[in-house]
Amino acid sequence: MRVMTSSFDSHSIPHSSTLNSIRNDHGVHRGVSLSEQLCAILGTSMSSEGKEAVWLCNLSEWPVYATLGGPVPIVNCPSFSQVRQTLSHVINRIQSFCHTNSSNPPLSIVGIIGTDKLISQVVKAYVECLAHKSLANLINHLRFVVIPSTSSLFYKLIEGIDPQLDNLCRDLWDRYGDMNHAEKAALAAKIAAWPNTVMSSKLNMPIGEAMLQLTADRDSDGGRVFLPFLSEVRVGNQQCEIENDDDSNNVNGFAQTIVSPREESVVSKAEGSSPPHSPQLRNVDGQELNMDFWPNTPPQQNTFYCSSDYPPTTSNTTPNSKKEAAKVTIKAHFKTLLVSRSPSSGSLCLTYLKEKRKDKMLQKLGMKKGQKQKPEEGPIPSQVSSIGRMLCSASGKHNELTVIIDGNAYNGIRYFQTSPQWQTHIKSFPIAFLTPNVCTA
């Protein structure tokens, strides 16, 4: 039997078995189970009038937001188990209403106050809880309202769409500590009133899919894990600094989380141009990788690539293999490898930076005695747009990868593959904005 555990996840991940029971020792109210908290917030049965709302926040990581808990119905979700149980509870209520009433249920609103870590857990629970096709119609009765950290990847995706939401995020994440009691109370009232203004309009954020092939020591069956993502997938290394949360003592820990935003400092230019609080690799030596990707259109030199210094090599294929003819193969020492969703199309965007070790060594050997090396200009990363699929593995039989998916790092990976679309009937993540009808479905 295949067993997967993670530092943030004591429940199973997709296509895996469960090892640990659900932990609930971080409840907002000590001695009260999560189910009892949800019943106290939502009631025992769903009403046909008005909208239902519950907010998820990791109060163990952000205890300052416990002060919102008066007007804002917050449930503490320090791990994936609590996130999944909360979302499952909400979906079961919608399903029960549909079975006992001829009318459509009111919208159920799930609020999220957190960083990329919590948001990715909610997305994962969302695709799991609605995985069965019989539940597909329930998607229309569920909305997510998100107040992401202003330095999160998710915030970068939605920034500028709704100015009111942008201001709310800055108030909560950047200015909350400097507010007086009256200002905090007004902000809490604004957050509590938000679900009542949510209309039928929504933004469907496409969900991508990452497939991770585990190494034998992580999984004797050589199993695969499928994980959703909204923003990006990048390759890390085993030397990157990571901080485990409360479930890190689990045996065979699978997933880890990059350095907490509270402890993360501003990175220098030498560490890359990633936004603050996104995964940062402290070791920039890179790794030998084999990468294959399939462009949605035939690759052309100087069309896809921002840098002509690193031209790709097309794999050897037979003329009859039309599918393989479009594949591009690159084998090199990569300092950076990042796959992100293209915001305006249903495809992926590949960004990578290769290390020119050979050129640097030849340059040093050719210098005369006492001659100083000329300052090297900053390398320009290559970028490939409109990618349909990407496959990446580490060079060498015994090498492993660390893959970072929307802020969560997974180690012990033999190879991984990304595609722009989650391969079930769940294709998107429906979010609503603070300004009504700011966007339409």
Protein architecture, described:
The protein is an alpha+beta fold and 441 residues long. The protein has 2 domains: 34-206 and 425-431, no CATH class; 208-240 and 281-364 and 378-419, Tumour Suppressor Smad4 (Sandwich), CATH 2.60.200. It contains 8 helices and 18 strands. The chain has helices at residues 34-42, 80-100, 116-129, 153-158, 163-173, 181-197, 322-325, 357-365, and strands at 52-57, 74-76, 108-114, 142-148, 203-206, 208-214, 224-229, 232-236, 242-243, 255-258, 287-295, 313-314, 328-341, 348-354, 382-394, 401-405, 408-419, 428-431. Strands 6, 7, 8, 9, 10, 11, 12, 13, 14, 15, 16 and 17 form a 12-stranded antiparallel β-sheet that branches. Strands 2-1-3-4 form a 4-stranded parallel β-sheet. Strands 5-18 form a two-stranded antiparallel sheet. The longest helix is centred in the first third of the chain and has 21 residues, at 80-100. The chain is globular and about 60 Å long. The two termini are 42 Å apart. The relative contact order is 0.16.
